[in-house]
Design goal:
The complex is a heterodimer of chains A (about 450) and B (about 325). Chain A has 18 helices and 11 strands. Chain A has about 450 residues and is an alpha/beta fold. In chain A, strands 3, 4, 5, 8, 9, 10 and 11 form a 7-stranded mixed beta sheet that branches. A two-stranded parallel sheet of chain A has the order 1-2. A two-stranded antiparallel sheet of chain A has the order 6-7. Chain A is globular, with a radius of gyration of 24 Å. Chain B has about 325 residues and is mainly alpha-helical. Chain B has one domain: MetI-like fold (Orthogonal Bundle), CATH 1.10.3720.10. Chain B is about 75% helix and about 0% strand. Chain B is built from 15 helices and 2 strands. Chain B has a two-stranded antiparallel sheet. Chain B is globular, with a radius of gyration of 26 Å. Classes of the chains: A alpha/beta (about 450), B mainly alpha (about 325). At the A-B interface, α1, α3, α4 and α17 of A face α3 and α14 of B.
């Protein structure tokens, strides 16, 4: 009797310990069968069935060319407010993307895998512009990622709503005053639709305010000759930008009734016709089709208007595909092969570009979403001509953007404590949109003080 | 986790050991490892081991680690640096901290005023209902069964501030103009409390319903004989009889609302203008909103402050209410 009880007790203990062992066992893809297992993150959460089909075809194509590599794609979206949790929790896949603003710091912190050796083996290694590759280069001179999809901020608009409001969708607004006038018309003629809206939440409020500020010739951060960063959001251009938003909101009542939008939230609102115009990355139609099933024939995009100031420029950014620091050398090699196949080759290799365009088109995914050149303008134009027969977004709808973008001065994002700065400014933008007559001076001064303290602590 | 049967067996084993101990000690006064094993010490230890390990690894060790971390500066990559009380100073000097304290207090107060009495009222009414009792119980408990994230996303949709929004359409039928709900600094917090109350009331109702069945019917009969009406019966019989349960649910509610995170995180992300930024959301922000690695020291420092505050408050609460509970 007693011995039976002891056995039962031991069994319970064994199960308990076994459970814990199960929790802590590494999920590393051990290559027991001689294959390399790779988890990649090329689709947004909620991707449509079409998008998943297109991706699956691309994966099959890659696995056919690399029979030793097994690719498992998962859904992933970089957001400023969740990335650190994933990084700290160790839940990131083998290949994932981060924005231009983050890759260098992550590399210097030792949080990304060094891919230099495998990167050098890719056919495009020598083709990269040093300035572009710089975002993925650590201070040790090693390469930690591969940039892709650079974009400029742009004004996306719904052509159908323009027509409904009696506006000409082929003549989108070209100044802030025109955006305001069109937004007002839309809000009046199409009830329940915000004429113009921009993001306000999850650090995106500051991101878009930075775009407005740059477009008026202002900057959030300046770097002195001694390399010291000065944070100054309390500047005339930012105040002008906020005053413009306040006018749209309170005088024109042209921004609808919902004011808490993050990136995916506003995409959803735009795709469902609740927002007629919004500020976004120029390539956002790719995401709108992939995650929201948006009908691209309704889509219009134009350059975001710049003021006459010689400092006026358009904020730009992009992504860097990076590799998990915990990966084995075999996985790193496989990861670089995948990134090269999935991101780089379709921009430089004719056969790869055409194959990619065909797959995307068959899966009803954006073929010709407007981006900026990742190498140089000539390569970009050549690429555009290769994929032209497969274009599935009416090129006339993109023309206002593609015609104007190369005349706009490109401005990178502020470099010091970017996400902290953006997060602090979310509140200021929200204040302007939800409270009348806000004392923006005081709020901007408070932001400057807070972020400058963080910057000084680094430089101290 | 141990099943109920295992727990019962464990309790029985412990009880037997306790009973047999005095006799055993008279025979063998010296304690040796062998006597310890013979008295069932080993099986006791083995039985509690899974529990100890699970709690240790998943609860106590992280708590101990976070206490240490609140005195450190760390990026979780390089070696942490001890910085004394700096993290606590940082939190106290952050203007958002006081906003978060005020917001959390406001949420707790609103939840107390509207959310606390509601389940009790509903439970009393439901216990009086003769027919379809099961149906009402199911309806009341349904929100609890729903995954919290799903219900918040659903309510976010209901709270659409356009005239076309679900709640605004309903208000429109009564001639009430569209409300901003979570889009206004004033209305956002009450809107969050409304959803939180809806989501949590079912659980408390079930507890009260169970407690109500234990109230002896004779007490009501006696009260009736003494001429008590419905209010008299509730005031003089029901409430005093539920006193113990009410004290427990009150402190649980206070602890729960002080740690509110889900609603502000999913509905508003603390906005508009930090009007729904609560203490736990601020902890999350310190730790995670900077994509390049957050201020984990400040996050753990603030968590620790909240934990200590709640612990002290609970002790004080039980001291104050002990007299009434025992009476």
């Amino acid at each position: 009797m007693k011995s039976r009880k002891v056995i039962a007790a031991l069994a319970i203990a064994a199960v308990g310990v076994g459970l814990l062992a199960g929790c802590s066992s590494s999920s590393d893809a051990s290559a027991k069968d001689g294959k390399v297992y790779l988890t990649v993150a090329p689709v947004l959460p909620g991707a449509t069935a079409d998008a998943l089909k297109a991706l699956s075809d691309r994966v099959k194509e890659f696995e056919k060319a690399n029979p030793d590599i097994i690719v498992k794609p998962i859904e992933y979206q970089w957001t400023g407010t969740t990335f650190a949790a994933e990084l700290a929790g160790g839940t990131l896949p083998d290949v994932f993307n981060v924005p231009f603003t983050d890759s260098k710091t992550l590399a210097n912190n030792g949080q990304l895998a060094d891919i230099t050796a495998d990167f050098r083996k890719t056919s495009t290694a020598g083709k990269w512009n040093k300035n572009v590759l710089d975002v993925a280069t650590g201070k040790d001179g090693k390469i930690y990622g591969i940039p892709w999809g650079p974009y400029a901020m742009a004004l996306s608009y719904n052509r159908e709503i323009f027509t409904k409001a009696g506006l000409d969708p082929d003549k989108p607004p070209t100044t802030l005053d025109e955006i305001e006038a069109d937004a007002k018309t839309i809000a009046e003629k199409v009830p329940g639709t915000a004429g113009y809206m921009q993001m306000t939440s999850g650090n995106t409020g500051g991101w878009e305010l930075a775009t407005l500020t740059n477009s008026l010739g202002g900057r959030f951060e300046t770097i002195g000759k001694d390399g010291k960063v000065t944070v100054k959001t309390d500047n005339p251009q930012t105040k002008q930008a906020l005053a413009w938003l306040a006018k749209l909101r309170w005088d024109d009542n042209a921004m609808g009734s919902n004011f808490l939008f993050d990136w995916s939230g506003i995409n959803q609102a735009f795709a469902s016709g609740q927002v007629a115009m919004y500020m976004s990355g120029s390539d956002v139609i790719g995401s709108l089709m992939q995650a929201n099933g948006f009908d691209q024939t309704k889509y219009g995009v134009t350059t975001f208007p710049l003021s006459d100031s010689s400092d006026a420029g358009i904020l730009s950014g992009g992504n860097v595909d990076v590799v998990n620091v915990k990966d084995s050398p075999a996985q790193i090699a496989a990861a670089v092969k995948w990134i090269d196949f999935y991101r780089t080759q379709p921009t430089v290799d004719k056969a790869a570009a055409i194959k990619n365009a065909q797959t995307l088109k068959a899966g009803n995914q954006a073929v010709n979403a407007p981006t900026l050149p990742v190498f140089d303008k000539a390569t970009w134009q050549q690429n555009q001509s290769w994929i032209a027969p497969y274009d599935n977004i009416p090129t006339a709808n993109l023309k206002p953007f593609t015609d104007g973008i190369f005349d706009q001065q490109i401005v990178p994002e502020p470099s010091a404590h970017t996400q902290d700065l953006y997060g602090a400014l979310d509140s200021v933008v929200q204040a302007v949109l939800t409270k009348k007559n806000v004392d923006v001076d005081a709020q901007l001064k408070a932001v400057d003080q807070k972020i400058q303290a963080l910057v000084d602590a680094d430089q101290g | 986790m141990l099943t109920r049967a295992e727990l019962t067996e464990q309790a029985a084993a412990t009880g037997r050991a306790a009973v047999s101990r005095p006799a055993a000690e008279r025979v063998r006064p010296r304690r040796t490892p062998i006597t310890w094993v013979r008295r069932g010490g080993l099986s006791k230890l083995v039985f509690t081991l899974p529990l100890l390990v699970v709690f240790g690894v998943f609860s106590w060790w992280p708590i101990a680690r976070s206490v240490v971390m609140s005195f450190q500066r760390t990026n979780l990559v390089t070696a942490p640096l001890f910085v004394g009380w700096q993290n606590f100073e940082y939190v106290f000097h952050d203007p958002i901290f006081w906003v978060a304290v005020r917001n959390t207090g406001w949420f707790a107060l609103l939840a107390l005023v509207f959310g606390y009495p509601l389940p009790l009222v509903l439970a009393v009414i439901m216990s009086e209902v003769r027919r379809l009792k099961g149906l009402f119980s199911v309806l009341a408990y349904l929100p609890v069964v729903m995954p919290p994230v799903v219900s918040v996303l659903l309510w976010k949709f209901f709270y659409d501030a356009r005239a076309e929004g679900v709640f605004n359409t309903i208000l429109g039928w009564a001639g009430i103009p569209p409300q901003p709900w979570i889009q206004s600094t004033v209305a956002a917090m009450p809107s969050l409390v409304l959803q939180a109350t809806w989501a949590a009331a079912g659980g408390t109702i079930i507890i009260y319903l169970a407690a109500l069945t234990s109230v002896a019917p004779e007490l009501y009969d006696a009260a009736e004989v003494d001429g008590a009406g419905i209010w008299g019966k509730i005031w003089h019989v029901t409430l005093p009889q539920l006193r113990g349960i009410l004290f427990i649910t009150l402190i649980l509610q206070i602890i729960g609302t002080a740690q509110v995170f889900l609603q502000p995180f999913l509905f508003t992300n603390g906005g508009p203008v930090d009007s729904t930024t609560t203490i736990l959301l601020l902890v999350y922000r310190y730790a995670f909103t900077n994509s390049l690695g957050g201020n984990y020291g400040a996050a753990t420092a603030l968590s620790l402050m909240l934990a200590v505050f709640l612990a002290l408050m609970s002790v004080l609460y039980f001291r104050l209410t002990r007299r009434w509970s025992d009476a």
